[in-house]
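Quick review question:
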């Protein structure tokens, strides 16, 4: 003999439907806006945050080390944003993958910082415009001081501890 538990059998009514809709909206995470970024757009984004420390992280959904470090990037943002940190994430995925790969990953990771996707025909010129010694490998992180100058370049996967150590001197200095 099997038994069934009936949790709620009465009709929902107007108030029930409103409560159900409200609880469903809290459970969803808004789909992040992912903007195409060429050299000009990304430089303008970094400049717009002058007076704050800016971390620009280059990542991609096809890059396992990028995906592994991403939760710590989110934690970095959550830990230091009140102290003047801004995180910008720049995906190296194809534009056609925004809705199928990039946004779902960002939602899963609860990323709530500005998101971009690379849009350039000349990868070498793009890399040289930001960090000439960088060979273009992913993941890669650039740290800009409060004056908007490139202060540090980090190759490879990072952790919350390594990012924290890298940004703290710049957070402590005032513009």
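Suggested answer, residue by residue:
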């Amino acid at each position: 003999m099997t038994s069934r538990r009936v949790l709620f059998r009465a009709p929902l009514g107007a108030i029930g439907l409103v409560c159900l809709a409200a609880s469903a909206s809290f459970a969803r995470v808004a789909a992040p806006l992912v903007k195409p970024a060429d050299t000009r757009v990304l430089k303008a984004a970094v400049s717009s945050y002058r007076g704050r420390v800016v971390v620009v992280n280059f990542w991609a959904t096809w890059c396992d080390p990028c995906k592994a470090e991403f939760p710590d990037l989110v934690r970095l943002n959550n830990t230091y944003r009140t102290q003047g940190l801004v995180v910008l994430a720049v995906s190296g995925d194809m534009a056609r993958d925004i809705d199928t790969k990039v946004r779902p990953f960002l939602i899963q990771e609860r990323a709530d910082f500005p998101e971009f996707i690379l849009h350039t025909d000349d990868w070498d010129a793009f890399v040289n415009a930001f960090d000439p010694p960088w060979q273009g490998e992913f993941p890669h992180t650039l740290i800009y001081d409060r004056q908007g100058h490139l202060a540090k370049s980090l190759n490879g996967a990072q952790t919350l501890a390594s990012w924290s150590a890298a940004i703290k001197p710049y957070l402590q200095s005032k513009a």
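Why it works: Residues 80 and 168 are 9 Å apart (CA to CA). The first helix runs from residue 13 to 27.
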